[in-house]
Amino acid sequence: MDQVEIIALVVELRRQRDFFPNSFDRVLLDAPCSALGLRPRLFAGEETLESLRNHARYQRRMFDQAVKLVRPGGVIVYSTCTINPGENEALVRYALDTYKFLSLVSQHPKIGGPGIVGSCELFNKTYTEKWLTEHEAELVQRFDPLSSLDTIGFFIAKFEVAQKED
C-alpha cells in the first residue's frame, strides 16, 4: 500500500514560512476573494472597482507562491467563490502568460459551465483585462448562481506543472 501524507495549511502572505521550493505534489489555492458569487451576499455594496483590483493583485501574489511550492509533475487547483472575471479568468491568463511551464487541464467531473472568453477595457480604456481563449474556457469550470444547477457562484481552474525554468 502506498503511503499518502496530507498537509493542510493556511498560509498568510504576511508571514514567512519555512517551506522549500518544490515541496508539494499538489496545492489547492482557495483564494480569498470578493465573494460576489455568494447567496445571500455577505458584504453587499461594499466592493469598489479598486477593491476588486486589490483582490486580483493579492490572488496573483498567492498564486506566485503556490507555483514556487509545487514540484514539477504536480498540480495546482485554483478556486474562488466569486463570479468576477478579474479574479478568475484574468488570473488564469496571468498564470499561463507568466509561467510557460504551466498547462491548464480539464477537470473531472465537469459540472460547471465554461469560462469567459476575450477581454474587457476598464478604467476609461486605460487598462485591458485579458481573459481566456475558447479552448481554455472549456478547461475551467464556472458556476453561475442563476443557473439551473442552483449553486453559489464559483470558479475552478486546474494546472499541471511541467519542468520549471531556473
Verbal overview:
By secondary structure, this protein is an alpha+beta fold. The chain has one domain: 3-Layer(aba) Sandwich (Rossmann fold), CATH 3.40.50.150. 21% of the residues lie in helices and 25% in strands. The protein is built from 3 helices and 7 strands. Strands 1, 2, 3, 6 and 7 form a 5-stranded mixed β-sheet that branches. β1, α1 (49-69) and β2 form a beta-alpha-beta unit. The longest helix is centred in the middle third of the chain and has 21 residues, at 49-69.
Give the secondary structure arrangement, pairings included.
Layout: E1 24-30, H1 49-69, E2 70-80, H2 89-98, E3 102-105, E4 119-122, E5 127-130, H3 134-137, E6 141-143, E7 154-161
Parallel strand pairs: 1-2
Antiparallel strand pairs: 2-7, 3-7, 4-5, 6-7
Uncertain residue segments: none
Identify the CATH homologous superfamily: Vaccinia Virus protein VP39
Count of β-strands: 7
Shape: globular
CATH top level assignment = Alpha Beta
Summed up, the helix count is: 3
Overall mean pLDDT score? 87
Largest pleated sheet: 5 strands, mixed
Strand percent estimate: 15-25%
- Topology order in helix (H) and strand (E) letters: EHEHEEEHEE
- The appropriate CATH architecture is 3-Layer(aba) Sandwich
The helical percent reads: 10-25%
Which structural class best describes the helix and strand composition? alpha+beta
Rg calculated over all Cα atoms: 16 Å
- Tell me the number of structural domains: 1
Q: How far from one another are the termini?
A: 35 Å
Q: CATH topology, anyone?
A: Rossmann fold
GO biological process, one term: RNA methylation
InterPro entries: MeTrfase_RsmB-F_NOP2_cat (IPR049560), MeTrfase_RsmB-F_NOP2_dom (IPR001678), RCMT (IPR023267), RsmB/NOL1/NOP2-like_CS (IPR018314), SAM-dependent_MTases_sf (IPR029063)
Domain SAM-dependent MTase RsmB/NOP-type: 1-162
Keywords: Methyltransferase, RNA-binding, S-adenosyl-L-methionine, Transferase
